[in-house]
Design brief:
2 strands, two-stranded antiparallel ribbon, about 5% strand, 2 domains, mainly alpha, hpI Integrase, Chain A
């Protein structure tokens, strides 16, 4: 989920609109409050929408992510839950909520999404921050030489 690595404010407010009105999950947009108390509307792709619906069950208010006792899950709890899921999946290297955020950014860039669009998706004020999040920056498969060569190969010579 693109909410700021399960920040407590983002998770707590994800079920509420900007003016305290419940967000209707069927709208496929989550109204949340991120870093710096900035409100944001985030589209929910179908797989995320399904996961959110499953997590909230029939509830109309409250946190999306809750502990086993029903309390709102905080940042540390989200990190522990992620570690458990990763371990169950056989992933042995450390994974954090912020690592998922970096993976979202890197995956978007590798998929060809422009820096400006990723900046908006990540809710960064400065586009240079996106470049720091890019974990595939040294991937030679993405080098511009390939795109230029493909373009030149398609040019007519006569």
């Amino acid at each position: 989920m693109p909410a700021r690595h399960a920040r407590p404010a983002g998770v707590r407010r994800l079920c509420r609109g900007h003016h305290g009105h419940p967000v209707r999950v069927r709208l496929r947009v989550a109204a949340l409050v991120g870093k710096g108390a900035k409100p944001a509307d985030v589209p929910l792709p179908i797989p995320v929408l399904r996961a959110v619906r499953e997590a909230i069950g029939g509830r109309a208010t409250g946190a999306i992510l809750r502990t086993r006792t029903g309390r709102r899950m905080d940042r540390a709890g989200a990190a522990r839950a992620l570690t458990r899921v990763a371990r169950t999946a056989g992933i042995t290297h450390p994974i954090s909520p912020h690592g998922l955020r970096r993976t979202f950014c890197t995956t978007g860039l590798v998929a060809g999404i422009g820096i400006r669009d990723m900046q908006y998706a990540m809710r960064h004020a400065d586009p240079r921050t996106i470049l720091r999040y890019d974990m595939a920056e040294s991937n030679l498969d993405r080098h511009a030489a390939h795109a230029v060569a493909a373009y030149l190969a398609g040019m007519s010579t006569g």
